[in-house]
Amino acid sequence: MTIKIAIVNSSSFGKYFPSHMDRLKKLGEVDRFEFSKDIRGKELAEKLMGYSIIIASVTAQYDREFFEKKDKTLLIARHGIGYNNIDIEAATEKGTFVTIVDAIVEREAVAENAIALLTSVIRQVGLAWRKVKEGKWEERAKLIGYEIKGKTVGIIGFGNIGSRVGEILKYGFNTKLIAYDPYLSSEEIIKRGAEPVSLEELLKNSDIISLNAFVDENSYHILSDKEFSLMKKGVFIVNTARGELIDEKSLIKALDEGIVAGLGIDVVEGEPIDQHHPLLAYKNVIITPHISAYTYECLSGMGDKVVSDVEKVVKGENPDNVVNKELLK
Ligand SMILES: NC(=O)c1ccc[n+]([C@@H]2O[C@H](COP(=O)([O-])OP(=O)(O)OC[C@H]3O[C@@H](n4cnc5c(N)ncnc54)[C@H](O)[C@@H]3O)[C@@H](O)[C@H]2O)c1
């Protein structure tokens, strides 16, 4: 029986490295799908009926309803690290391996985009570029920024990416580095180069805050009214992790009050957003459309991993980086 492989809502997989597609086509029939991010589980299951392998992006939602309606699915391979769009319990009950890319593959790309966002927002690069394009070179004296050197940088979530963001800012820009991560020991945080602090201390002392935590019930809206009220007035915030870490209403209030002097984000709650999103009204906000992992180096590594998972599953072997380890043979 021919194996059918579906690539769902991925704008990058197989597009830049044709060898990844060639390897998949050796295994079976490969089709691309583009669904609305809000597609219901039932409809998604109907559309993907017969596809036993799915290469999944950050959308659609593979919820319980999807797994209840879907026929046998051997593998959902995330072309990425996060998997909060997949109901792992339901996948496990159905016997579907869920795999993710090894976080290290995305480390450098995401960390470097955090730095790009920070340097852009702190020096108003986007705004300055717009002035030049509009023929307003002479307005340059209005575009005064800040230096990063010597500032206190607070990293929330000092894991794979956060520790690299910290490393670049500490050793490249001579910043003071503090980090809050309740799941890491103080010794580990110190070993990774930062001073361990409480969330409150971090908020009170940071000139720059980088969000690099994963989202769960404890970190959801970790920056909300109370947290913004503790921050230094004029703080710069970078978020390359997940939009859900920030309560947007509180953020907008903090921008209006000048608590947040600049915001550089790659992720927005409820993304993708359109051109009417309230954050776009702010000159001191720069947003990239979830592109942090989009480097050629990273895409090559991610694609290799996904294809290798598919190859292994087709051969009846365990894939790598399985989320639902109960299924490992
Ligand atoms: N923008 C992108 O394209 C992109 C790409 C890759 C990863 N990400 C996101 O970046 C984030 C970090 O990825 P990673 O590879 O470093 O993951 P990781 O698991 O190595 O690091 C996350 C860290 O956050 C910490 N953490 C969890 N809850 C916390 C909380 N409440 N407060 C403080 N720290 C907390 C964890 O202990 C962990 O050390 C994830 O949310 C991931 O989804 C985004």
From TrEMBL:
Residues covered by the D-isomer specific 2-hydroxyacid dehydrogenase catalytic domain: 18-324
GTP-binding listed as a keyword: no
InterPro entries per record: D-2-hydroxyacid_DH, D-isomer_2_OHA_DH_cat_dom, D-isomer_DH_CS, D-isomer_DH_CS1, D-isomer_DH_NAD-bd, NAD(P)-bd_dom_sf
Pfam families from the UniProt entry: 2-Hacid_dh (PF00389), 2-Hacid_dh_C (PF02826)
D-isomer specific 2-hydroxyacid dehydrogenase NAD-binding domain mapped to chain residues: 115-292
Gene3D superfamilies named among the record's database cross-references: NAD(P)-binding Rossmann-like Domain
Molecular-function GO terms, alphabetical: NAD binding; oxidoreductase activity, acting on the CH-OH group of donors, NAD or NADP as acceptor
Any one biological process term the GO annotation gives: amino acid biosynthetic process
Record-linked CDD domains: 2-Hacid_dh_12
Keywords linked to the UniProt accession: Amino-acid biosynthesis, NAD, Oxidoreductase
Family per record: Belongs to the D-isomer specific 2-hydroxyacid dehydrogenase family.
Name of this protein: Lactate dehydrogenase
Organism: Tepidimicrobium xylanilyticum
